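Course exercise 7: structure representation. Students receive a sequence record and must write out the corresponding structure in token form. The form below is the worked example handed out in class, using BTB/POZ domain-containing protein 2-like (538 residues). Read each field label carefully; the graders check that inputs and outputs are placed in the correct fields and that the protein name is recorded exactly as given.

STUDENT ID: A-19
EXERCISE PROTEIN: BTB/POZ domain-containing protein 2-like
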Amino acid sequence: MRCCVCLFQQSLQCSPSKMAAGESNSRSSCLNLSTSGPLGNAPPSNSAHSSPASNGGAVGAAAGMNRSAGNSNPRSGPENGGGAESAVRSTPSASPASVLVYREPVYNWQATKSTVKERFAFLFNNEVLSDVHFLVGKGMGVQRIPAHRFALAVGSAVFDAMFNGGMATTSTEIELPDVEPAAFLALLKFLYSDEVQIGPETVMTTLYSAKKYAVPALEAHCVEFLKKNLRADNAFMLLTQARLFDEPQLASLCLENIDKNTADALAAEGFTDVDLDTLMAVLERDTLGVREVRLFGAAVRWAEAEAQRQQLQPTPENKRRVLGKALSLIRFPLMTIEEFAAGPAQSGILTDREVVSLFLHFTVNPKPHVEFIDRPRCCLRGKECSITRFSQVESRWGYSGTSDRIRFSVNRRIFVVGFGLYGSIHGPTDYQVNIQIIHTDSNTVLGQNDTGFSCDGTASTFRVMFKEPVEILPSVNYIACATLKGPDSHYGTKGMRKVTHEAPATGTKTCFTFCYAAGNNNGTSVEDGQIPEVIFYT
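STUDENT ANSWER:
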């Protein structure tokens, strides 16, 4: 599986890294640890194989001296007094030409820190008074980081138990191979100074460290950072991490983002890297905003990637095998017969029995039972909207099996959920009706429903709804189509070529443009006819 953190970094246009939660494969960090300390001393060397260096003018060692931090006998004068004596010493693992420069600590550094916070911040990653060292990371990436038991125990119950509990360790060096050094430094920085230093490269591993050492305040900062950077192209990756780290609030936000931007989220690079449980958690939702055939296509892409991860050939049988129960969450009955015939029926993933059963479901009435869910997904939030394209109603519009059609386009993305149709002029009556929305250029049926409605004989419109919302894109031509079987009905006149709906709360305008739909038309036009109302969500 590809590294989720790398994908998150790429989505934020940061330099790539190899780190993942709980792993230490990266030697880079968003933390700025290379600047000089507050008193101008050299930055520390945290190599596990080199002698400890001071950070912020803490502790140096003159050539040939062997002093422990906190017990030195400084030879330099007070700050800004005599110059600090420096010494040069080769590290044991370095070549003879490779040396590190160390400087004597400034005497009475405490006097330069006016608050407890400043004094503790000075001790961060500092050998001064340190009584424990952590060997953080794996292999060549291990860093030796100094720390102070008291400071850690004050900020973390886990560290408190580690140093002061019934089974407290007495070791002065503790190995942490499962923690990323940059993340551990970010954790210590927070414990010593309340400062938060996280970025795209370190947020996941810092969240892991904060969870491991029970620092909920830092957890909250990490989650807030992820929320602010949540987008459709990283929603699946962050959902996987939120489930891994047991962050239900972040997981909920990821799912909401996927609901609103399903097509973009499915097209993102990180989608095929999610685990099966995360895939199923998404597929079982009733609120996804995408056609079912596109969900099936995304599931097939995931199955191909998963088969490769399991070192299987991407045959239809193996794709079905790795999908497992996720296949049953695809709602094939919500597809049009054209979509099903062109895609799933020919994929080889479904059995012959399943294909025949679904074709019968599409073509016969009453519809036989199928093994797949036929409950519509409702991806829509907010308030239902509608527009009416006629300003007057007249009587007697006849039907002979030909469809009433009108071509339309809109200025913004919407979801059409149904039409309002005129009913009988002869009193209460039942109608059979087939409604469709057709993509004009490709002549593809995007949504349809064979259904019926009852009318009361008035000139009102009567709602006929699609099985699922039909996505309408801006500046694209579509045909609204209704084929009615029943007695003569009312019809609209004085039609408008352009109709605008303005949202009361936001003032957002949705503009419809209507044109005559040539072809086999029962007579409906811009000026008069059927399909007086379009019902939609924005």
